[in-house]
Amino acid sequence: MPSNDVIQHHLSIFFLSPNTVALRIKDARSIPEFNFFINDPNFLRLIINFGETRSRIAYLKEMKIKCTSLSVLCYKPEQFIAFLQQGLNMHRHEEVTKFIQQLLGSHSRRIGVNLKKHVHHRCVNLSRIEDNYEYLRELNFSREAIINAIPVLLYSRYLNSQR
Question: How many distinct structural domains can be found in the chain?
Answer without folding.
Answer: 2
